[in-house]
Write a structure and sequence with these properties.
545 residues, nine-stranded mixed sheet, Rossmann fold, alpha/beta, 3-methylmercaptopropionyl-CoA ligase (chains A, B), homodimer, 25 strands, binds adenosine monophosphate, Luciferase, domain 3, 3 domains, GMP Synthetase, Chain A, domain 3, seven-stranded mixed sheet, ligase activity (chains A, B)
Chain lengths: 545, 545
């Protein structure tokens, strides 16, 4: 027997319409690449999202086609979130920190039809335009005057300014209604070996995640909040904040391109931000700025920190020096991204501070909707004893079942997604990441593939074997170094090898150091044993630290 | 193009499994009709819910069949919530405050196959058992010893104690997986004219409502909370609290049969309850008890008050005398039930207290998922100006599209459900109920059908015409009175007419007063114009007030 409830699909357009109707005058504040602070409202953003939908209709772009962005956090990017997905197209947010070739590869793999970019990324766009034949229209996120200045020294075909592109269209629009398992958005992750792979989210998964992310035990978002997502909108949809924000009607503050401590502080302060979210690196810069200048943030209540393990000192500094609660979060692109969040339980409320701190350091408890388990090498589930380490597996309605256009079989194992993280779970359900089974390095919230780093070193004539490992770094969380065995009778210096990386990887992906060793430990199957290597280098220190 | 996310149905069994896994030791405290305070945990409750599922399987009860309850808020009722729906049967919670004949009518209309009841309701059950041929098993929510005492003076066929019924079954169970639009539970409402009508909820609508109800701008439920639902589990699933509680893992306190101020206070105090929810009448009793005895509730942070308009003095008393935030809520059976909740917005935070109070008095803003509008008599949408009154219409995934086994067409108008409430909506989206267009009266959170009251009066030989209307009452919110035109030359006194109601309606449904008039205003089509009648009686005061 079926229930007799209304069968309304869960669609992303409903989010912006809800915000426009119930929170029409709530502000969206953006630091623009134009240099100024821009103010708009949910009502205006909804009107312009509808203009985006019209503009895509005018291109006769069929539903399901990809519209890409190379953009900072800002109001135009926010409008695209709703205009693109709401009208049935797929929003493809690209990480502009990748190398142009990597970006071009992704654009081609996704077969993007439109690409909207912040002026900052004009050099990238100019460089890749010719290599991206699927893109029929390039949209510069600015007005005509700015676009003219941008193209003064040369332009590309099929280029238009965003303001002109949407400007002539009506601000009213009838959003299409379609099944809510329709694709809404996609995000490539380099967090795996090989080429980047894309998660393809649906309207339903996005809306469910939007509810979940706003819960009191997750980001606790309400209409009383003013939220600043430092986490980029090109990085798993800024942890879903744009969607949850529209659902609850909080004020939004977008930091644009300036993520240094001073700029972020200024916005937090002047806009009276109550909640901010980002990777540890950004908060390190903010803390340093506040410490150096004796600043405070009376309005700020909490920060959600995730994407890399949050250092204990950071949690303590925020709590003790600034009265800001730090919520430690774990998630990944394949999870939309939120999986666990660390908040206390009722029974913890009377624990002494240091006992509470031990809990806060963990990655947290699974949000309802996410099932998790840790499994041993044999695939058997391990006990929740806080001791047994195993690979973390997850499942749920906002977890992927496959990658987009992948030629490999689905990554799922019996319906569970293997995260590649090694973790323990304690009897209260608090998960703690203890290691990473995949050998990628995370620096400043971004992935660096150890395999890429190794492959380049191996391409040098004097290198016999190379292993890339991550070394803890106080600011970037981890930095890659490359451990090298030279070919007999051949020579290469540290400086020569580092120079060899230039132009082959983005600057921040180039290892910080080269360590020459006589041999790299190998396992039975000939695989490099990085755990042993890490042990060998236990006393190693990064240059300059 | 479809998204590539996992296609996991949203099922109620997942709620209790999540609670058992992540909050296994969290307490569920119940005041039992046995007289004691009982303590269990989510882990144990999950085990017993699984035993319920086995017990239903052992009856070979097909999926979709109805299992009814006549029960207070308590742990066994909680177990049935999950065991019945989780295993694919439909939980039918019946309001025990109805007359036995009304209950029998409902049981037959729903064709309930099992009926579980608290010992309190044994007299009702004994009275209706013979009239309920669909019921194959009667389950007394107690153990065998208590059942023996209960049946000492006569019993009924097919009667078993709950503890014996579930006791022999294993506590492990593989919950079935089915589409999430499957019916999960049902609730009859008398909030309409004619026979009671049932909303038939689905697993999906219930889970979406569970997420929504826990949001910071709704009940704000977290694992740090200890929640006492005074609102009955037979009244729209205690506003969904059992489901949301399991999703977030808060401690639960069930008050059982004793809802007087003293008993509720005692539980709130000893269990350190942080959040409680109920209709205004219950809070009136609590406030009176605390005022009279100079008591405080340091742990209690907030109460959700709804089901009837919350008097301003109550909001003030809770805030000012007890430091408790009152959240005014509006909802209805047909909405699972939550529709709007009154919390402030960011821009209101710096308003003076009296300006904030003006907002708090309203019924609140629509939760994301609920669309609302007010329409004029012509069905046209009215502006959100805080002035224009019209019928409130709603839609969304936890709103009904039809009643169960109704012989009438769907109540929806262009996809919108007409609530029968008259309201305004202000520019910030705050809805305020100003009147009720449906001819039913709400007293202490329970419905009284004006038609029933009128029909009985009309059956009296001296009555020519009778109109029943609700009059505001400080404790019960509304009380019915009956306005009567006598037949020419005939006489009947107030006392005679009131005596005439005895045995024909439950005591609390009998009108408080009879007002004799010369004529009742009639409209063009001969219908009684109750609005005019209310105007005529503007100066009227209930006896004893
Ligand atoms: N906060 C409230 N203020 C005024 N009336 C309310 C409120 N909450 C519920 N109601 C009334 O109760 C009805 C729903 O009753 P029920 O279906 O029994 O939950 C609504 O349609 C309203 O008439």
């Amino acid at each position: 027997m079926l229930g007799l409830m209304q069968d309304r699909p869960l669609l992303i357009a409903d989010l912006i319409e809800h915000a426009a109707r119930h929170h029409g005058d709530v502000e969206i504040v953006s630091r623009r690449v134009e240099g100024d602070i821009h103010r708009t409202t949910y009502r205006q953003a909804a009107g312009r999202a509808r203009q985006v939908a019209h503009a895509l209709d005018a291109l006769a772009l069929p539903q399901g086609e990809r519209v890409a962005t190379l953009a900072w956090n800002g109001y135009r990017h926010f409008e695209l979130y709703f205009g693109v997905s709401g009208s049935g197209r797929v929003l493809h947010t690209i990480n502009p920190r990748l190398l142009p070739e990597q970006i071009a590869w992704i654009v081609n793999h996704a077969a993007d039809r439109v690409l909207a970019f912040d002026m900052t990324f004009w050099p990238i766009v100019k460089g890749i335009a010719a290599k991206c034949p699927t893109v029929k229209l390039w949209v510069a996120l600015c007005d005509d005057a700015h676009l003219q200045r941008l193209t003064a020294e040369g332009t590309i075909a099929n280029l238009v300014s965003y303001e002109t592109w949407i400007g002539s269209h009506p601000t009213r629009y009838d959003w299409p209604v379609f099944p809510d398992d329709t694709a809404s958005s996609m995000c490539y992750t380099s967090g795996t070996t090989g080429h980047p792979k894309a998660a393809l989210y649906s309207h339903k998964s996005t809306i469910l995640h939007a509810y979940a992310a706003a819960l009191p035990d997750v980001m606790c978002l309400s209409a009383r909040d003013c939220v600043l997502p430092v986490v980029p909108m090109f990085h798993v949809n800024a942890w879903g904040i744009p969607y949850s924000a529209a659902a609850v009607g909080c004020k939004l503050v977008f930091p644009g391109a300036q993520l240094d401590g001073k700029s972020v502080y200024k916005l937090l302060d002047t806009e009276r931000v109550t909640m901010a979210a980002g990777v540890p690196t950004v908060w390190q810069m903010l803390l340093a700025h506040m410490d150096a200048n004796g600043l405070k943030l009376p309005a700020l209540q909490r920060t959600v920190i995730g994407g890399s393990a949050c250092p204990p000192a950071m949690i303590q500094a925020f709590r003790e020096r600034y009265g800001v609660e730090v919520l430690h979060a774990w998630g990944m692109t394949e999870l939309s991204p939120l999986g666990t969040l660390c908040t206390l339980k009722n029974k913890h409320l009377l624990l002494p501070e240091e006992e509470q701190m031990k809990i806060r350091l963990k990655q947290g408890r699974a949000i309802f909707g996410i099932d998790m388990k840790v499994v041993g090498p044999d695939g058997q589930e391990l006990p929740w004893d806080g001791q047994s380490q195993g690979e973390l597996m997850v499942r749920g309605p906002w977890v992927i079942r496959d990658y987009y256009r992948s030629d490999k079989p689905s990554p799922l194992v019996d319906g569970w997604f293997p995260t590649g993280d090694v973790a323990t779970i304690d009897p209260d359900g608090y998960m703690q990441i203890t290691d990473r089974s995949k050998d990628v390095i995370k620096s400043g919230g971004e992935w660096i593939s150890s395999i890429d780093v190794e492959n380049i070193a191996m391409a040098h004539p004097a290198v016999q074997m190379a292993a890339c490992i991550g070394v803890k770094h106080p600011k970037w969380d981890e930095r890659p170094i490359v451990v090298v065995v030279k070919k007999p009778g051949m020579d290469v210096t540290r400086e020569e090898l580092l120079a060899f990386y230039e132009g082959k990887l983005a600057k921040w992906q180039i290892p910080d150091d080269v360590v020459f060793v006589d041999a790299i430990p190998l396992g039975a199957t000939g695989k490099m044993q990085k755990n042993k290597l890490r042990e060998m280098l236990a006393g190693y220190r990064l240059p300059g630290l």
